[in-house]
Specification:
Length: about 130
């Protein structure tokens, strides 16, 4: 592959990679601020940017070589996505636990505090023989 072709590939791949990195930065800031509207917006933008970047990197890899520096940056961006996903999963789990404490679900025992049966039958009443 000629030097001109490698430079053209690098130029073609630079913009989608910058878009991914920019979306990651904006999403990271929104996560830090705990701004749910911004998180939704930037997560959707990141999803689109990643899809476009992967498509272009895949096409470039089929037609020749992807410059090592851009490949490394794409792998780093993938690592940042994984880290943000993990952080968000931990925050979601903590929120779920807090909600369970504040708003417990339906009782799971057979008897309530008054000693009455809390199970509901399929017919809405008590079981009769």
């Amino acid at each position: 592959m000629t030097a001109t072709a490698v430079n053209t590939t690098a130029v073609d791949l630079e913009q989608p990679l910058q878009d991914v990195e920019s979306c990651l930065n904006l999403l990271g800031e929104a996560l830090h601020r705990r701004d749910s509207a911004a998180i939704e917006l930037h997560a959707a933008s990141l999803h689109l940017a990643l899809a476009q970047a992967i498509e272009q990197f895949t096409a470039a890899a089929r037609n020749g070589t992807v410059p090592a520096s851009l490949r490394t940056r794409l792998m780093q961006a993938g690592g940042r996505v994984a880290a943000q996903r993990e952080s968000l999963a931990r925050a979601t789990a903590a929120l779920d636990r807090a909600i369970d404490v504040l708003m417990p679900g339906e009782p799971t025992g057979l008897y309530g505090a008054s000693g009455k049966n809390e199970r509901k039958s399929a017919f809405g009443g008590s079981i009769q023989a």
